[in-house]
Design goal:
alpha/beta, six-stranded antiparallel beta sheet, globular, six-stranded parallel beta sheet
Length: 316
């Protein structure tokens, strides 16, 4: 689901500076020059101070701390289904950013009644540093999920403890020729983060990223497909990104994959083993383990127990 966001100033000629600094300063100086010319030096000083403050306040600060949790208040809850929502948490200032590298994630902590110690889970935002002022978490609430249930019960203004960045994956443009991605359920979040970064960096958008992406996205029912509209829109707009859906219980006239992700699906839809490709995997542990075995059987480099950036098959 696309959401509006504040546009960061990108240069000294950005609209924020033109309308918020240059024009008001010019009007102030012209007005003082007309009304009382001898006050002009003081007007220049005031304009410079106000302009300097606006420039400073429009600069982005990286907020995340890897060694300390911080409290972020819940600003908005966007309900997607009976057990899935996007939770938007405010950063301290409108122009603040997380400072989260593409591909990395964060730790979320909470004190849960009945648990002997603080519960910690990892989440990848679906927003990025291109969205200043807030962070969006896509969370599915499970009956046995401590953190997910805790977050689902938060009221607007309640806070969540977050720290980071963490994780071995850091995406950089051109790191591979072709990504194959396998996601299950909320495992779509790190994939979406990377996909959006690649598309933002396309030559048509002023970048040089020509990375191809094929995504296998597995779910139980059609209604379980998270952010399908976003994925379909990205695929429609970008020839280098293709999404292939797989459902355990497909509806009538379904033209996607059926059942579980299989080695045959991987062989058909994802790039073949090569030095300049990567396969990224994220989803429930049983699925991840099955996909590790499947990629190994197809001749990809054997996945490690804990993935490293240089691995051909990387599991989040």
């Amino acid at each position: 689901m696309a959401t509006p966001h504040t546009i960061k100033p990108t240069s000294a000629l950005s609209p924020q500076y033109v309308t918020g600094v240059y024009i008001p300063s010019a009007l102030l100086l012209v007005g003082v020059a007309i009304a009382k010319k001898e006050w002009l030096p003081f007007a220049v000083i005031i304009a410079a101070l106000l302009g300097g403050y606006r420039f400073y306040s429009n600069q982005s600060r990286k907020i995340l701390k890897p060694d300390a949790y911080q409290d972020f208040p819940l600003k908005e809850k966007i309900v997607l289904s009976h057990n899935v929502a996007i939770y938007r948490f405010s950063l301290p200032r409108p122009n603040d950013i997380l400072g989260l590298p593409i591909g990395q994630h964060m730790s979320v902590a909470a004190t849960i009644e009945g648990q002997p110690k603080e519960v910690v889970r990892s989440y990848t935002p679906i927003s990025s540093d291109e969205n200043p002022g807030y962070v969006d978490l896509l969370i599915k609430s499970y009956p046995t999920g401590n953190i997910s249930k805790h977050v689902s019960k938060l009221n607007i203004g309640d806070t969540l403890k977050i720290k980071g960045p963490k994780g071995a994956m850091v995406y950089t443009p051109g790191m591979v020729r072709h990504f194959g991605m396998i996601a299950g359920g909320t495992g779509i979040t790190p994939m979406l983060q990377i996909i959006r970064a690649i598309i933002r960096g396309r030559p048509r958008n002023g970048g040089q990223d020509t990375t191809e992406v094929d995504l296998l996205f597995a779910n139980v029912n059609f209604e379980d497909i998270l952010l399908k509209d976003d994925l379909d829109t990205l695929a429609k707009e970008d020839d280098g990104f293709r999404v292939h859906y797989v459902l355990n219980n497909p509806p009538e006239k379904w033209d996607g994959g059926v059942g579980f992700c299989t080695p045959e699906m991987i062989k058909e839809k994802l790039p073949a083993p090569a030095k300049d490709i990567k396969v990224l995997i994220c989803g429930p542990p049983p699925m991840v383990n099955a996909m590790k075995e499947a990629t190994d059987s197809l001749g990809y480099e054997k996945p490690r127990r804990v993935s490293k950036l240089q691995d051909q098959v990387f599991c989040f």
